[in-house]
């Protein structure tokens, strides 16, 4: 009896030591599942599906065409926008040339006015000497006033022409900017008929057929990046006391009986599953039964181990968290300073639209023949550029004495 009692006592001591140094230093659960990002592919424009390029289970790359919509309507809109942009560029050049033409008209009218003024200045003194008839002086005065009025009119027309073009060029002309924006929108809408994948991953949940009419935002396909997965381990609330962020964890699965994954605790969900369910439980009732709740704890997975032994979303796992080090925290204190996920496939559309718009602007920019125009001050200016204000429009205060 003493031997039997000693054996049981030894077994109890071994169990106590195991509990103190092993079992009490870890938390395990089999209510854990593989999770990942599910990127839903949906159209950004309405249309009819004319081509499906991928099937479920196939690998896709970022920028790869997944589906195509009928491009007829978008191509018509694109051609219309291209014509409007070309027309706006030519109208902008016309406005700039009209401003230069108005400047040349000011120079011409100023020269005519000076001619009539000099004619009047020669005839007016001769009237007192009875060398010319007064009617000639009066006619010269009327012609001088008419030339002055024509000069003022030309200057006002030049001011009106410059009000449309001063401070701008063909690229920054308001009508060109507006037409360019409309062309960019038409170009992007035309490219949106080709629905591309924003990320690398595996195609899943195809819900579209050829000939189907689709609308913006409609779920067509799902892309799952299987290279970046994690495990949501649903621990009981009685197990959460010693779990902290950063603690190591081991994960085993049924799909690979010989493989063990290593990760760490990266965070706790903000609420239990029942708190975020569509119809949460109503506990404020008379017939209430206490149910131990579970809280999802996110455990990361080693990418290298995932490449050797790939996992799929939804697989069940066994999670064992080592809680020896309990100095960590349960709630994060740092704010993420970089994007969680990003893609540049849509930026390429904008860059291509800008490049095409530049081609249209260059193709419709007409280089005018060069010639020189000399103003009264003797400063030459190009006939096909906006003349400087001192050269194009002189101060008329000096003419008021006449």
From TrEMBL:
Gene3D superfamilies xrefs: 2.40.30.170, 2.40.50.100
Every p-hydroxybenzoic acid efflux pump subunit AaeA-like beta-barrel domain range: 230-320
Multidrug export protein EmrA/FarA alpha-helical hairpin domain residues: 73-192
Spans traversing the lipid bilayer: none
Coiled coil regions in record: 78-105, 137-164
Keyword Coiled coil: yes
Top-level taxonomic group: Bacteria
Name of the protein: Efflux RND transporter periplasmic adaptor subunit
Pfam families: Beta-barrel_AAEA (PF25963), HH_EMRA (PF25885)
Cell compartments where the protein resides: Cell envelope
Main location: other
Keyword list, A-Z: Coiled coil
Keyword Oxidoreductase: no
InterPro entries in UniProt: AaeA-lik-b-barrel (IPR058634), EmrA/FarA_HH (IPR058633), MFP (IPR050739)
